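To make the argument concrete, we let one protein speak, a sequence paired with a row of structure tokens, as a model reads it:
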Amino acid sequence: MKLDIRFRSVANQWLFNVFIVMAVAIVAAEIIICSFVRNVYIERVRSHANDYAQEFSVLAMVPSENFYSTARSYVEGFEHKDKVSIEIIDTYGNVFASTTGFLPDGEQKMQDYELALSSTDGYADYQTRTDHNERVMSGTILFADYGKGSNGAVRWSISLENTYDRVRNVCLLVILAGVLVLGLITVTGMYFVRSIVRPIRDVSSAARKIAMGDFENHIEIKKENEIGELCHSINYMAEELSRAENMKNDFISSVSHELRTPLTAIRGWGETAKMSIGTDEEIVKKGLDVVLKESERLSSLVEDLLDFSRMQSGKLSVNLQEIDVSELLCEVADMYTELAHQQNVSLTYVIPRNNSFIMGDKDRLKQVFINVIDNAVKYTEKGGQVLVEQTEIDGCVQVTVKDTGVGIPAQDIDRVKEKFFKSNKTVRGSGIGLAVADEIIKQHNGLLFIQSTEGVGTTVTIALPLNLPETPEEPEVPLNNNIEEGTIENSEE
């Protein structure tokens, strides 16, 4: 048998789900960081340029007749010509002084100056590219009008090439850091995923082998974590399946033997009786007795198997009615008195003083009592004793079957009620009788206990709730409204 199983690797699922999400998140973070760095650097350039330009704001207070000469002297004495270019604009919008020594021609547009004229605070800046594709930023600060006719403007210009180079370098570092982080996430993630996938594959392989019947296969547990716990569970499952398989095989062997023995007796005595017809009536009668006895034994075994099948499928039902446990128990004890006598075993049933009534299924409970007493007689050696008692304790009837038989080993006492389990394989039996009996008692809301000491004997106790009559409520005495001298008059008087 070959199992063809196709699946998507967990590693691939992680790669196409978690990895893509992380990559998108890192790229988004890099874009935000780079944009923030760019804005910070541009703002620093703008701030420094404005600081330099503010040095010329005093020109607004110079009289108009001295405005041009004073402005040119300020421009010529400006100390930061290497950092920023300064131009002075008169009231008519003409540039008449520049730190570069070159005045722009009239065709050059000054967008920042035009924006400043229309702004509310008298300031504006603008980024553009020169004819040589150089990125520059220009800004204009209008002079305040103090009524002296010197209300022109100062205009600054600065190259952004160095600034964008720095932004580019920072962004490259950010991108590199993002790649490293993504690579680290990928490596650690794949290592983590594989540390899970490999044990799961081992578990899957082991589970397939177990499904094929290889219960001896076990998973090596490398780490004590959730995966390790799963491996423990799989190994435990394999052990339990192996034990169940062995029990099933023992059960089949035992049932086969149980079936073969009566069938052999039936066939043998049937042939003997057939050949003795008309010649030896005693042999014929004895043969028929054996056939009937063994047929009854086969019928009982088949009924046990059917009950077990019903129990496994949850269809083992009981028909509840009021029955007398004492009468039923006495009937079963009488059935086994002769068998116990033949095996030289003393079977004693202590007749209770009072009858005990319960709600139960007579046939099912009879089946339980037969199973328990049969086991007691069967496992008790010659000269031993079996004692059957019945008592009432705390609203329950308690049936006790005590024998002086071989007992049950301590390691098996907790398993004797399991299906297929037989503690003593040398004695006849299918190994399902106690499992069925325990289920029947549970359906009667009762309990079945087993106490045993190897070599001393076994005590089986069955507790069933009594069918107690309901206590009638005392009728309320109707009261008359006429109460005189502490007495209550009946309304009929």
User: Anything to note?
Assistant: The mean pLDDT is 80. The two ends are 94 Å apart (CA to CA). The longest strand covers residues 385-393. DSSP finds nine helices and 14 strands in the chain.
